[in-house]
Structures are given as C-alpha cells and as structure tokens.
C-alpha cells in the first residue's frame, strides 16, 4: 500500500469562523482507503500557518507505506528541519498527518484506533462542561454577573455533568472581554473581588458536590495566579489550568509550591521533549496534551506514558472539530492515567458538528469511545464542499 495524495482543507466553521478554521487533511492510498487528521491550530491565530505546514509535510510522505506510522513520524520530525525545534505550527502539521495515518491503519485492520494503542481501559469516559463563561449548549453568553455564572453552571449540572470548567478572568462585569493586562502582576482589589464573587456564587448556589476546574488561559502571571490559586483552595477547585505562560516551567512550579490545588497544563506544549521538564520539576499534575498539536496519536501516547512515571493524570485538550474529539477519545480510552474528558462549549454548536459525518456527544456527562474502524470520524461532504481553502498534494514539490 502506498500514499498517493493528500487533500488539505481549511473548513468553514460558520459563526465560529472568527476564531476557528479547522485544518483537516485526508490521506489517500492506492487501495482506495483514506484517513482524516486534524491540525490543532483552529483556535485563535495560526490556521493559515497550519494549513501551509500540512501541505509542506504532505510532500514528504507521497509514495510511502501508510502502515509505517513511526517511520513517517520520524521522517517528518527530522527531515522538516524545524521539527526538531518544536513549535505549534510544525507539530500541528505532524499531528494532522499522524492522526490520518492511524485512521488508515485502523481501517485496514478493521479495528478502532484505541486497539492499536494497546486496547481500552474503559468504554465510558466522564466529561466536564468546558468554558461556561461563554455559555452552554443553547444558553449563549458571555456572562459577567456572579449570578449568571451560577445559573449557567446549574444548567450544565442539570444535564448530568458533575464537573465544569470556567475562566473567571476572561469576561469583565459588563460581559465584554477583559484585557489581559488586568490579570497580570499585583491585581487590583476590584479584580480579585470580581473573581471571588463569581466563585462564591457558583458554590453558594450550586453546592460543593461537583468538581470545578478554574481556567486561566495563561492570562495571569505567577503573582496573580497565586492569588487566584488561594481562592481555588478556598472554593475547592479540582485544578487550576494554565496559571502562567508554559514556556517557563519554573513559574508553574512557583504557583504549585504556594497552593494546594493541582496545576493543569499542556495544550501549548509540543513533543515529549518539551513535556519532560514539566514532569521532572513536578510542575503539572493534570496533563492536557492536544492530540492535534502535540505530535498526533503517536506522540500523545508516549507523552501520557511518560507522565504516568511522574504520577501525572491526563485530560486531553479538545477544542477543535469533531475529528479532534474522536482522536482524544481514542487516546483517553487507551491510557491507564486518564482523569476526565473535556467537552468544550464550542463542540456543542452545530457550526462545528456539521463539518463531520458523526456527532458524538456525551450522555449525562459521559462519553462513549467510538467503535468504528480507525478514528470512527471523518469530514462530511458539506464540510468539504464549503471549505475556505483546499489544496491537493500528490508529489514532493522539492523534487527529492
């Protein structure tokens, strides 16, 4: 079997287009079997960079055997020159191709990807309702008032979730975006009071018998993160996510050393080499690798296994298209140190779910791992027909 061509798409997420442009590749073979993979840079700025990276990497794999997943991964990593330096764009490109290869391999062998990763530890996975500051399902935010945070939390709990995640720093009291500068350094009393009022409202109105992850999105630094971390201790948070910029792991440790709440991080770290320093210094307790940007299923499994050595538990970051959801579920099913699955607010919206063939959603806060061969997910015809960009790579354009 040989790889004959690679289609690269930038999908149109409709009303989410302002922030999400999923980058998907479809790898074709001479036996008619194809596989889909995603580059996890749909969120924020960088989608065109990821699109170009997948296109460039695709030229390296034309004519290769798609079953040789590790061989191809190492070729992309080492022959791309920039792969060995890491970085979001390069690793997102590697991830998309790698996931598509696992999809092909599963289809060839007639088994779900989790079987190829070693088999499943679980069929059902507890999930949490993520990013409630923006709303949940048909209740659309953003929210500014403390009572609104309590109301949207209760709305998710009433649907069967027993865990939620909220960024209490992202939206101001007037429900508009709060500048990052408000969250850094020694925060004002007004800022601290705003954050605590929201946490308190959630606990006072919704109770203490559910888990609450506090999301900071790297908006805080070590100084302000410690102050919010103390509130996390007070209001019994499950974890404090991305308290500082992850490029300096010592700052995560500085926060962890001063609070009891576990630190969650990993969605903006790429490749096992970048994770190692976080493990060695005990900087992260809830690991959040994104299968679509950390190096694909090949690398994500290695990262999670490495984390187990350091007693680190895992929740895959999952904020892309339904293909990223399927990839995360297969990984989480196949690792012993799974903690919980992220069900992102955006993943409940039709503008994303319409881009793929299947709409996997949790029931009463519990996900079921896909059982179809490969990923068990692929682009819909609608997704391909309405793509913002599409290119076909069928040869190595470098002439090598």
From TrEMBL:
Gene3D superfamilies per UniProt: Enolase-like C-terminal domain, Enolase-like, N-terminal domain
Mandelate racemase/muconate lactonizing enzyme C-terminal domain ranges (all copies): 146-262
Pfam families noted in UniProt: MR_MLE_C, MR_MLE_N
Coiled coil: none
Segments traversing the membrane: 81-102
UniProt-recorded Gene Ontology molecular function terms: lyase activity; metal ion binding
Keywords, alphabetical: Lyase, Membrane, Metal-binding, Transmembrane, Transmembrane helix
InterPro entries assigned to the protein according to its UniProt record, in alphabetical order: DgoD-like (IPR034593), Enolase-like_C_sf (IPR036849), Enolase-like_N (IPR029017), Enolase_C-like (IPR029065), Mandelate_racemase_C (IPR013342), Mandelate_racemase_N_dom (IPR013341)
Protein name per UniProt: L-alanine-DL-glutamate epimerase
Organism encoding this protein: Enterocloster lavalensis
